[in-house]
Design goal:
about 170 residues; 6 helices; mainly alpha
Length: about 170
């Protein structure tokens, strides 16, 4: 049976996105397809964390709320970098590599910090049952976002504009 532990689910998404980065870098892969898949997953994953996981984690004293707030800020940076890549007109063209590396850097930085701080704290301070409950809520929210194609350029633009106003 697949795990519903929220920490394991988030880590699995991180590894999937790293694989998609490799495909987006490969001249022999369907780079545009990898970008579409990545965009949907990044947006669905981040929104599910923001809606279901981060608010729940803020209630646990041993988990640093500043780290959670910083995680939200890093989501915004990753989404802005994603928009930059989605706006590149030619996959593999002149701007592609630069915008892709900006995205890789922003997202990998977030993965590293989130895994070392927020996820380790969640693993140490939440019961298995609570991690499973959060995992199920994360999966429901993520699936709802994926079902509506949340990574399309128009939606990513809306998200980035909303963040710029905040």
């Amino acid at each position: 049976m697949a795990s519903s532990d929220v920490v394991e689910l988030i880590l699995k998404d991180h590894r999937t996105m790293e694989d998609l980065f490799r495909r987006m870098r490969s001249t022999e892969a369907d780079r545009a397809g990898a970008l579409r898949e990545f965009a949907d997953l990044l947006i669905a994953h981040g929104e599910a964390e923001e809606v279901e996981v981060y608010p729940a984690l803020k209630r646990y004293k041993p988990i640093d709320n500043e780290e959670i707030e910083h995680g939200s800020e890093e989501h915004a940076e990753g989404e802005k970098a994603l928009l930059g890549l989605l706006e590149v007109e030619e996959v593999g063209g002149e701007d592609w590599d630069e915008k892709l590396e900006n995205l890789v850097e922003a997202v990998n930085h977030h993965f590293d910090e989130e895994e070392r701080t927020i996820l380790n704290a969640a693993r140490q301070n939440l019961t298995d049952e609570r991690r499973d409950e959060l995992g199920e809520a994360f999966l429901r929210e993520r699936a709802a976002r994926l079902a509506v194609g949340c990574g399309d350029i128009a939606n990513v633009r809306r998200i980035v504009r909303r963040q710029e106003k905040e």
